[in-house]
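From the shared-data thread, chain only:
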Amino acid sequence: MDGKLQASQEQAQDSTGDCSMDHLIASPNPEHPANHICTLCRNFYTLGWVTGTGGGVSIRDGAHIFIAPSGVQKELMQPANMFVMEYATRTYLRKPPVLKPSACTPLFLAAFDRGAGSCIHTHSQWAVLVTLLVEKDARSQGREVFDACFEIEQIEQIKGIPRGRGKDGMLGFFDRLTVPIIENTAHEEDLTQSLEAAMERYPNTYAVLVRRHGLYVWGDSVHKAKTQAESLDYIFHLAVEMRRLDLAWIQ
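Structure, as tokens:
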């Protein structure tokens, strides 16, 4: 057995300890949140979104929130690694003793408080590059960097993004996609206030970029959050290449 995989499996076994709530993460159903998060983490690792244990995934299932832990290599994630929180009380029902809760947890909760069924955090290079390009544009135009958003229009993949909370349908080809950007902080949890402020200022957004850091994206379900994360990463990648070719994001 590969040493890296063996170490992860041993860690997963150790992390269960004598947890009395292991039934919350035990299911043969691949769509069960504990299993689904592991699948997503492996897939996101292959995309370069969660390298070096970075990033995170969370799913709300009724009264419970399932959250991938901190410090575990995403491509080796096991259901036994999962934290399970009771949403109403913000208390952990299942807390693997040798693992640390994700530092993303308060940001995930901000999305769940706005009706999300899942929230994903990536360290996509394209997301980071887009924030740097927007910063460069703002400085060159004498505008405030903190107030600048990523905006793009007339790109087909924009149709993969919903119009907003409580609104029917998706954005159209001629609509403008706006993704707010917040400033990075030394500690992940310190982003919470800025994220919540961006959510309030841009109530139709399903994503917030963090400058020089990555992306938070959420959806009404885990399937929608995943689709939106993929659509946005495609758009960010395209935007970087468009800038390389001196093509405008806004017509």
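The first helix runs from residue 3 to 16.
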